[in-house]
Structure formats: structure tokens, C-alpha cells
Design a protein that fits this description.
Aminopeptidase; globular; Acyl_CoA_acyltransferase; 9 strands; about 150 residues; GNAT_dom; transferase; N-acetyltransferase; acyltransferase activity, transferring groups other than amino-acyl groups
């Protein structure tokens, strides 16, 4: 398994990016300013994009694992890589996600704790309702992990 930084043609991973953020113009808001990593194990299995949010906070804007490879530890490997790589530069790794029974428990298992919410984020910023595990996503839930 190898994790490499992607510096050009980040849109080549659009199918993975859209798994985590299903509206392309929302991805466009952070893709170029963010740092992207691809996890390869034979071929690309997962990706993530992080941004510097100031105040020693690094934010995961997008993290996705190819559906055929979910549950195999690739997402956790990316998070552990970020925590290790950025521990000397940042004090907090945070992620914003929908209040979903799929994603919140994953982040909690990776050492994140709930921090705060942004009410109506998904209904205010997306042009269509977003559902995960049959639940409509409305508020953005922020989780943080100390580095």
C-alpha cells in the first residue's frame, strides 16, 4: 500500500470525489486549494483532500474509498497517514459530514469526537436533497481529533 500526493489533474479522481460529495460545484470550492492524496494498493483504492483552516486546524474536505474496497481499512489508513504527517504542523484534524449512521461511527472509530454542527448546511448548499442510508442529510456535523 502506498499513499502519494496528487499535484495535478485532480479531477481524474472525480468518480471517487463524487462518492463523498455528490455535487461537483461543491468539490470545485476546495479541490484546487486543497492537498490531495491517493492511496494505491495495486491501483487507486481511495483518495482524500485536506485544507488548512487556520488556527492549527487541518480539515478533511473529501475522503472516499472505492465501493468494492470499503471496509478493508483504506479509509482508516488515510486518516492515520494524515494524523501522522501533519502532527507537527496542526493540533486538530477535523471533518464535516452529514449526520449519517454510516459516516459518523466510522470517524468515531478513528478517534474523532463531535465538535459542533452547522444547521441546514446540506439543504442550503446543495441543489437537491442528499440521502445516506435512507436518512436525509440536513445539518453538517463537525468531528475533531487532536493530533
Amino acid at each position: 500500500m502506498k499513499i502519494r500526493e496528487v499535484n495535478e489533474n485532480k479531477k481524474q479522481f472525480i468518480s471517487l470525489l463524487l462518492l463523498a460529495d455528490e455535487q461537483e460545484n461543491m468539490i470545485d470550492r476546495y479541490l484546487e486549494k486543497g492537498t490531495m492524496y491517493a492511496l494505491e494498493d495495486g491501483n487507486v483504492k481511495a483518495e482524500c483532500v485536506v485544507t488548512d483552516e487556520g488556527n492549527e486546524i487541518l480539515e478533511i474536505k473529501n475522503i472516499a474509498v472505492d465501493p468494492e474496497n470499503q471496509g478493508k481499512g483504506y479509509g482508516k489508513a488515510l486518516i492515520d497517514f494524515l494524523a501522522s504527517k501533519y502532527a507537527d504542523e496542526y493540533s486538530i484534524l477535523q471533518v464535516g459530514t452529514g449526520d449519517s449512521p454510516l459516516t459518523v461511527p466510522f470517524y468515531e472509530k478513528c478517534g474523532f469526537v463531535r465538535s459542533h454542527n452547522i444547521p441546514n448546511f446540506f439543504t442550503d448548499n446543495y441543489d437537491h436533497p442528499i440521502y445516506e442510508c435512507g436518512v436525509q442529510l440536513i445539518d453538517m456535523v463537525y468531528l475533531q481529533r487532536c493530533l
